[in-house]
Amino acid sequence: GCGWWGVFLPLVVRWCERDPLVPGRLGRQLPLHALRSVTATLLTGICIFLTRLVAHQLFGTDEFTVRQAFGALFNSWLLFDFFMYGVILCAVSALAYQRQLRAAELDAAQLETALAQTEMKLLKAELDPHFIFNALHTITALVRRDPDGAERMLCRLSDFLRLTFATTGAQEVPLQQELEHLNSYMAIQMVRFRGRLFLDTDVPTELLDCRVPNLLLQPLVENIVKHAVAPSH
């Protein structure tokens, strides 16, 4: 009996791998596995009966009749095989759950890495290198001619970078924060284009807490500066 169970073990494992136990689906899975357990018992029982029959004819061992086979089937084989099937099913289900847990952890790690890379790309997209270089060039020009102006310019650039880093990856921000980001950007540009660029905002107070898409205003103003003001600088 153990030998024939070993022969059919790969089939039993395959059945268990196909439908591992999952909470919430036990009502459908348990009857299916019970049927498969009975099938495995019948297969091993038939093989045992045929083996005993051949042994009796070839070697003269004790005769094993069909009645004895059915008696053993219902008295012990079904219970023993059902227990063995249950042990294999629980072991395979535990391994399947462990594999799923590891796969989920790997997916989460890959997603976290992808999000970090995306945030870096967004940050690079938000920080226009030409704008940074122009701001630093303006500060350099002001260091000797207007030290106080260079200091103010550095403070405004610092505010701009701080707000940029603070909102990186955010989908929505309060309108007031978006206006602060725009003001810090324009403060730098107004120093660069002295006397040719001004910013005037008129926003009702009750709208300042409204959430808007992040970087909604700066790209619009940036395009105006880039295409309307900078070419004639």
Short descriptors:
2 strands, single chain, 233 residues, two-stranded antiparallel ribbon, mainly alpha
Output the structural class.
Answer: mainly alpha
Mean pLDDT: 85
Could you give the distance between the termini?
94 Å
Strand order of the largest sheet: 1-2
The rough form would be described as rod-shaped
Q: Helix amount, in percent?
A: over 70%
Number of helices: 7
Total count of strands = 2
User: What string gives the helices and strands in order?
Assistant: HHHHHEHEH
Question: What does the largest sheet look like?
Answer: 2 strands, antiparallel
Low-confidence stretches: none
Strand content: under 5%
Radius of gyration: 38 Å
What is the fold's blueprint, element by element?
Blueprint: H1 2-18, H2 26-59, H3 66-126, H4 129-145, H5 147-166, E1 172-174, H6 175-192, E2 211-213, H7 218-229
Antiparallel strand pairs: 1-2
Folded structure, characterized:
- The model has no long low-confidence stretch (mean pLDDT 85).
- By secondary structure, the chain is mainly alpha-helical.
- The N and C termini lie far apart (94 Å).
- The longest helix is centred in the middle third of the chain and has 61 residues, at 66-126.
- 77% of the residues lie in helices and 3% in strands.
- The chain is rod-shaped.
- The chain has a two-stranded antiparallel sheet.
- It contains 7 helices and 2 strands; from the N terminus they run H-H-H-H-H-E-H-E-H.
